[in-house]
């Protein structure tokens, strides 16, 4: 990445969609917009609006989380307001650096290095947590299906861990084998399968319902089987309503793969909130 002096970050040129010709080369308007931010474009802009929206949705498949905490999502609307600010920053400074780069741009010269470092570190930690939680959920679900079909099957923890490692390897294969121009199709297909799964899950749950549970059986009885103690398990469960917000932050990192990101990224950030709800 080619860095420019920090004082150049304070100057952002008005957008002109026409390509510029300089010294025999043509510079795209989107690429030219990156230069006042301190670097030049390195990636091919092969993604589209629907592909970016599908990427945001498919990362966490948040409908499954909302199924257990939909009431909280309806009550608390602050998350959407927070993303208005992120959408505004992405509109002004579209960059694949995302939050840590935005922090560096808007922070004061004395604090921008430290602020960007802390923000980037938190981002990496969030990626690890989200990735690990999604992979282990897949492994646990696979053994849950096996236990439903074969009641006598007694799973062992090491088996779940081996399945977790297998899912990790399978998740890495598309990254190294699928060409960049096909990534949009992959994310759109994943979103389509997720929506079909949602419809089937709702239909099966309604069709197989057998009476109503008394509130006491859900609230008063301690039936936690997560392995955590009661207090920790409760804190983790109420945080489930915030799980979907990881997807919105992720799409900021494909700004340099999206044509006209200053307009498309804010649209994806805001539409994804309505799409997931």
Automatic annotation (TrEMBL):
Gene Ontology CC annotation, any one: membrane
Record's bilayer topology term: Multi-pass membrane protein
UniProt source species: Fusarium agapanthi
MF-aspect GO terms: transmembrane transporter activity
Compartments where located: Membrane
Keyword Coiled coil: no
Statement: the UniProt record of this protein carries the keyword Electron transport: no
This protein's UniProt keywords: Membrane, Transmembrane, Transmembrane helix, Transport
Protein name: HNM1-Choline permease
Membrane spanning stretches: 73-93, 114-138, 158-178, 190-209, 234-255
Signal peptide interval: none
Lineage: Eukaryota, Fungi, Dikarya, Ascomycota, Pezizomycotina
